[in-house]
Amino acid sequence: MREDAHWRTHAWLSAAAAAALLALGLARKANWKAAGWIGFGASAAVAGIALVEHARFVELVALSPRAWALGVGGWVLAALTAVAVALALTRTDAGAAPRASLRAVLDRIARPWRASGPGFGLGLLQAIALIAALALSLALAVDPRYRDFPIAAFVIPAVGFVLLRAAPSSDGVEERWIGRFLALAAIVIGVREGPSNWEALGWCATMLALAWPWSGLARAVDWGQTEPAKGERRA
């Protein structure tokens, strides 16, 4: 708190972002039990804090137009992912929310006149997060000088896609390789930086969480949703 002279303002902004995500869940009439709402509220709080912390990070370290552009791009990615994951979690079958594979996303971008398949939005956000995280992690593993760890920008994609059990389909070969290289880069960074660099360890943990869905060990989180009454349909 002492290092942040405007901590009250930042705390209110974090709370406002979390409240907006909670309002989204209420507007979608999520059919959760108490445990589901508690889990969703905790995730919304983490997302709100991460968005504000990344904005502070960009303000402190961005010293050029390029750095500002990358920083703002990371914030937009995190914000869009927070909304997309919140919408997906409000589905009864949240763990089965469709996500297009990287191959399907690239095919759609190359042929913009074709109709988007199911889960294109989530697939696009996940592809951007994975590729950006891999590029940064490889740079930090090979030449960590004068580089920072934008942890907050990737906390939301990492946690959100783990909650959604984000492996899209059996044809996600490219994602599996990206996930493996990302995990390997995280391990290299952790070994290089050592246990005394908590910021580096936080980055490594975030990258491992981002790569986790491709390990085959992730499972959908049970949000304690109740089944809709007979004849009731989800909006």
What does this protein look like?
This protein has helices spanning 7-27, 34-61, 65-89, 102-110, 120-142, 151-163, 173-193, 198-211. The chain contains eight helices and no strands. The termini are far apart. It has a domain at 65-215. It is mostly helical and 235 residues long. It is 66% helix and 0% strand. The protein is globular and about 45 Å long. Helix 1 crosses helix 2 (34-61) and helix 4 packs across helix 5. Mean pLDDT is 77; it is low at 166-170, 218-226 and 228-235.
Strand content: under 5%
The radius of gyration over CA amounts to: 18 Å
Number of strands: 0
H and E order: HHHHHHHH
The separation of the N and C termini measures: 42 Å
Which structural class best describes the helix and strand composition?
Answer: mainly alpha
Helix content, binned percent? 55-70%
Task: Please give the count of helices.
Answer: 8
Tell me, briefly, the overall form.
globular
The stretches of 5 or more residues where confidence is low (pLDDT under 50) are: 166-170, 218-226, 228-235
Topology:
Layout: H1 7-27, H2 34-61, H3 65-89, H4 102-110, H5 120-142, H6 151-163, H7 173-193, H8 198-211
Helix pairs in contact: 1-2, 2-3, 2-6, 3-5, 3-6, 4-5, 5-7, 6-8, 7-8
Short recap of the structure:
The protein has 235 residues and is mostly helical.
